[in-house]
Amino acid sequence: MNYFKEILQYAKPYKRYGILNIICNIFYALFSTLTFIALMPVMKVLFQNTERVDEKPEWLGLLDVKDYLENYVNWYATTVVDQDQEKALIAMIIVIVVLALLKNVFGYLGMYFITFLRNGVLRDIRNELYEKIMHLPISFFSEKRKGDVIVRTSSDVEKIQNSFLSILELIVKEPLNVIFTLGAMLLISPGLTIFVLIFIPISGFIISRIGKKLKSQSTDVQKEQGYFTSLLEETLSGLKVIKGFNAEDRLNNTFQKSTQRFYKFSNVLQFRRSMAGPTSEFLGICVISGLFWFGGKMVFGGDLNGEYFVSYMALAYGILTPAKAIAKASYGVKEGNASAERVLEILHTKNEIEDKEGAVSIPAFAKAVNVNNITFSYQDEPVLKNFSLNIPKGTSVALVGQSGSGKSTIANLLTRFYDVENGTITIDGQNIKDVTLKSLRDQMAIVTQDSILFNDTIATNVALSDKNATEEQITDALKIANAWEFVKDLPEGIHTNIGDSGNKLSGGQKQRLSIARAVLKNAPILILDEATSALDTESERLVQDALEKVMKNRTSIVIAHRLSTIQNADHIVVMKKGEIVEQGTHSDLLSKEGLYHGLVGMQSLV
């Protein structure tokens, strides 16, 4: 229940609906009990066993409620039955129908009001989860499977929502039913009711033992669902590779092993969950059977009227439904608790990269970016060691080197996707840890090797940084990025949907859209992370031409494998194992005949 206490905090904005639900449930339980009690006068009229009461009884207070109701019914039957038995019977049946109608009206209203609370909580948790996911550092997702995060946002939250209804039934609706019913049963026969109360704790103990392992079993099911959802997501993303390497059978086998584990976990969970209803019903029947024996003896001994006994048994049997609901709700709470734990694990994850207290907005970039003696490691693997670099405004700096030398890590640290361990990165002398993330990233536009596009229109993808951008601004950005030449020929122009990850376009077209997005942002610092490495020669020429246009009058940090793209850079930094081994202009580095000269030679540029 500890996790649910925290989840219940999300219900505060909807507490008025919770209060209305409780009020409706009180009336539901009251009219439900009165419906059963109303059977007693009907039985008396049918069997003509009504005591004569010639004077209308007086109300003497709650302590006299049983005698008052009994005398009032007898008085009504005495004054009416003598005149017309059928009329009396019809009147009492109408009372039962009205009570049943009121019971169901309040039952519906209770569900009506609780719907706003349940769905509101569902929406708010999902919104907070999505916002949290958006703000968590990139490092979090290198350790988590995407499919597992998706399941937590969808299936786990859904289970929490379903458990909300269960917990409210557990706390309010069904216990009220039981309390009102037991109160009526006490009025009819305290002796029989004590007999019932002896069995209720025993039944509750047995049911709780059955549901003891539900939380851990539900966690296993949700984890496995997250695993095969990740496999599915990876399969859809890498379908070309899977088919190209004839790996269908291998992936299919992995997926089936996961779904087989899910099948086993789900079966165990369902078997245990399914025991709730039959167990509670069987225990209830045992109680009813005991009541028939014990109550029958009281009727035979003249200690209890037959009509009262029939009504009492109806009330006792009526307790079975709320008792089953409570058992089912307690199981739902245990399952929901497991899902709540998984959801709250994300919500409680501490974000190491966020605005510090007192962070300020960085002013417009004016002088230089300085990387001062920084050190960084991915987990325990050192990537950068005592790395320093000065990037004056308006210059283009290229970072080259073999894979794993730390080039892309520099881009990740400049944008604070990760934080440096030692040393500082400053913009115009201001530590980037002391400024707001939004103002820092407003200074930068990024073009990555993988063209990350969304299943939406070209206009939406290009105007990602400015939802108010005009069509003219979008078109101008596309022209600068050499993308207008193919966009203008599309059926709907800039309003054409480009499909999932932009898969309706070629690699070069997607990359030019990524450049157009950077153009529209018009940030003073441009980071190009191997923006042309995955392109064919023709596409590379078009993209490189677009990049040269974009880089004019901007501070550019270019990370490149293809050295043909950085020959005109103002400063080239050659990296090896996280350290600078050479730096200078293209001609200077060639004349040194060092590592850079060798890299150029391998790419047949000289």
From TrEMBL:
SUPFAM superfamilies, alphabetized: ABC transporter transmembrane region, P-loop containing nucleoside triphosphate hydrolases
Highest taxon above the source species: Bacteria
Alphabetical list of SMART domains matching this protein: AAA (SM00382)
UniProt domain ABC transmembrane type-1: residue ranges: 19-335
One MF term in the entry's GO annotations: ATP binding
Domain annotation ABC transporter: ranges: 369-602
Classification via Pfam families: ABC_membrane, ABC_tran
Subcellular location: Cell membrane
Residues annotated as transmembrane: 20-42, 89-114, 178-207
Keyword Transmembrane found: yes
Annotated keywords: ATP-binding, Membrane, Nucleotide-binding, Transmembrane, Transmembrane helix, Transport
A Gene Ontology term for the protein's cellular component: plasma membrane
PROSITE patterns the record matches: ABC_TM1F, ABC_TRANSPORTER_1, ABC_TRANSPORTER_2
Protein's membrane topology: Multi-pass membrane protein
Designated name of the protein: ATP-binding cassette, subfamily B, MsbA
Organism: Nonlabens xylanidelens
